[in-house]
Amino acid sequence: MLRDREFVILASGKPLMSSRMHGSEEALASLGCAHVTAAEAPAVLVGGLGMGFTLAATLALMPESGTVVVAELVADVVTWNRGPLGAEAGRPLQDRRVEVVVGDVLDVLRTRRAAFDAILLDVDNGPDAFTSARNAALYADEGLAAIRASLRPGGMVAVWSAWEDRKFEQRLKANGFDVDVQRVRARLKKGGPRHTIFLGRPNQARPIRARTHTA
User: Fold this and answer.
1) What is the rounded distance in angstroms from the CA atom of residue 117 to the CA atom of residue 26?
2) CATH fold for the domain made of 21-202
3) What one-character-per-residue DSSP string does 65-88 give?
4) Cα angle at 17 between 16 and 19, to 5 degrees?
5) How far apart are CA 91 and CA 174, in angstroms?
6) Whole-angstrom Cα distance, residue 29 to residue 120?
7) Which residue in 20, 66, 68, 76 is deepest, having the highest Cβ count within 10 Å?
8) What is the pTM for the complete model shown?
9) Backbone phi, then psi, for 70, in 5-degree steps?
């Protein structure tokens, strides 16, 4: 919906994102892609198009030889970004380096092994699924294994979340990631609510998962 000059995307009547608060979405790109700026031909996967701010910030960091795959589950969101929403983020979908996949980002991860230098995930409100129960699999062991398999050596996954989540942090570690947690403002230096970004690099140790024993 459009409110004055502010675009807002709602789910079940609750606001998911606003065109006036996108600093943490841009921080997702700057933190998750800091290591790819000097790469010769980096490849990045953006899970969740939203209003295009993460994609635009990613492109700003990438060389001309880079590529960005953006996976968006809701086709209407892609249509909005090609139409009335596009100008808000500078119409990043028009960049020749961008490949758009309308579908589940987990399906992209399953089919592209060792394909990405960075994976940026802004799906739902974070690891605790809000808009769709199917999103939960992405942040469970199954999804984290797919993420690990899709990263190139030295790659990183960055996950946006509306809040802190110690259980997810521990799950990342249990699946073989070295983890750093950053808290950023929705409007960065201009304030706003704090959001959480989980940064994970696969370590060399084998993932250790808890097992449930039954009597």
Assistant:
1) 18
2) Rossmann fold (3.40.50)
3) T-EEEEEES-HHHHHHHHTTTGGG
4) 160
5) 39
6) 7
7) 68
8) 0.86
9) -115, 125
CB-side neighbour CA atoms (13 Å) of 178: 8
Chain segment 154-213, per-residue pLDDT in tens: 999 999 998 889 999 999 999 999 999 999 977 656 656 788 999 999 997 655 454 444
Tokens of 171: 């799950």
Report the distance separating Cα 189 and Cα 90, nearest Å. Answer: 21
Name which of 171, 198, 194 is nearest 184 in CA terms: 194
The CA distance from 17 to 3, in Å, is 13
Tokens 């990043």, located at residue: 92
Integer Cα distance of 188 and 126 in angstroms:
19
Q: Which two tokens stand for residue 101?
A: 């996949």
Please give the average per-residue pLDDT across 34-43, as a whole number.
90
**Buried residues in 14-26 as b, exposed as e (16+ CB within 10 A):** eebbebebbbbbb
- Spatial separation of the C-alpha atoms in residues 44 and 59, rounded to whole Å: 9
Q: Exposed (0-12), middle (13-18) or buried (19+): which is 214, by Cβ within 10 Å?
A: exposed
Q: How many residues does the chain have?
A: 215
Terminal Cα-to-Cα distance of the chain (whole angstroms): 54
